[in-house]
Amino acid sequence: MWPMIVKEFRQLRRDRRTLAMMIAMPLILLTVFGYAARFDVTSIPTAVFGPQADAVVQQLPPAIHVISVDATGNRADAQEVLRRGDAAVAIYAGPDPVVYADGSELFMAQAVLRRAPTLPAPVEVLYNPDLSTAVVMVPALIGLIMAFIGTIVTSLGVVRERADGTLETLSVMPLKPRDVIIGKIAPYFLVATVDIVLITIAGLLVFNVPFQGSVLVFALLSFLFLLVVLGLGVLISTLSRTQGEAIQLAIMVMLPQILLSGMIFPLSSMAAGVRWIGQLLPLTYFVTAARGILLRGEPIGALLTPLGVLALMAVIILGAAVFRFHRDVAPAGAAEIVDVAAEGAPA
Length: 347
What we know:
The protein contains 13 helices and 5 strands. The chain is of the alpha/beta class. It folds into 2 domains: 83 residues, no CATH class; 212 residues, no CATH class.
């Protein structure tokens, strides 16, 4: 028994990736998620409109963070600033004043309602008046399911080719690395497209989630997001030698996206040192944009930032996947076939 235990320890010591996951990752996850796992909202971005705007700003509680003041604005302006996602709360300070809260920002809306007695006007919740958790979660779950399929399932693609012994054949065929990557992604992209249509329809019908925005804008968002997560899966597969390694890396990529994307915990409640990690995650931008499109009917002009970031991520990640395949996989495969041919040649 003792020799077997010693052998396993030596093998574990050589497998640095597994050792890091067992020791370092729990400490990192505890620290990062400990700061991220907060439901309390201490700063609520607010826009104030109307002739009494300046006076109202002086009366607001500390948690109400005023980001803009427009003394010439009206109720329509207040509602529009919420629809575009520029603020979580909009106050109209004029005749019949009112405080509009964005119900698609669930925790912020709840925080506003808790502070209603300290506010200068009654609160009216827009875009999710019942404060339904399902209505807010379904757009995020659509992205999570797509990320899961795209990252974990696709990450096994190139690794499977290596295990089956067909990777070497691919590397010496008259195909450019980008052709191989596109060929690996295309089937998963088609299946994922069908999946996203099915889950979106199911979410709308089963959970009564509204679809206030443009179908074409949502299709563009989904297209860019799928390119990113599928590219991540292929990149992970080029970094892995076995299916076990691919699954480990995919899980390491997925965990932060679940907890740091704003899907469960509001980004505004996270510590600044953790919040920036969320800004590097593709799911963050999908969740923000999907909630805006489905729940608020947010126009494409207000979505240029998340769409642009996802497009940039797709270019970078797919480019990195092509580079990795060209640098590491293709030359190695070609060298192996040349060695085999040399061994079979007559002396």
